[in-house]
Amino acid sequence: MPLTCPADLVHHNLLHETPDRHDWNVWAGQFAPNLLDLNSCEAFPSADMAYRAAAMSQGVAIGDLSVLHEEITTGELVLSLRSANGFRRKPRGPEGRACASLHPA
């Protein structure tokens, strides 16, 4: 199922890059409050593991654009939600880098 708006995420497995599920909680708080069940999603001990799971079609992850530049450039991962709708980017991460939701090509 394509991802064109936040409501489409209810049909996808969300991959958390940390066990505390902070990544999707921050994103959902801004773009999809009360829409997603963030407790039933898969949590990983590291961001890299969540990115690898997304690349292997296990679900949708939120990732740091500067870290994933190569994977996005080569098409291994694609940016999910259209920025024209204002949904692609989540608030800047703790390091101040822009992040986006990602899924396999």
Mean pLDDT: 75
Assembly type: single chain
> What characterizes the major β-sheet?
6 strands, mixed
C-alpha-based Rg, rounded: 12 Å
- Percent helix among the residues? 10-25%
Unreliable parts = 83-99
Strand content: 15-25%
| Count of DSSP-assigned helices | 3
Report the order of strands and helices. EHEHEHEEE
The span between the termini is: 13 Å
Describe this structure as you would to a colleague.
This protein is of the alpha/beta class. The chain is 24% helix and 20% strand. The chain has three helices and six strands, in the order E-H-E-H-E-H-E-E-E. It has helices at 22-31, 47-55, 69-74, and strands spanning 14-16, 42-43, 60-64, 77-79, 89-90, 99-104. Strands 1, 2, 3, 4, 5 and 6 form a six-stranded mixed β-sheet that branches. Strand 5 (89-90) and strand 6 form a beta hairpin. The longest helix is centred in the N-terminal third of the chain and has 10 residues, at 22-31. The chain is globular and about 35 Å long. It starts with 13 loop residues before the first strand and ends with a strand. Mean pLDDT is 75; it is low at 83-99.
Write a brief structural summary.
The protein has 105 residues and is an alpha/beta fold. The chain is 24% helix and 20% strand.
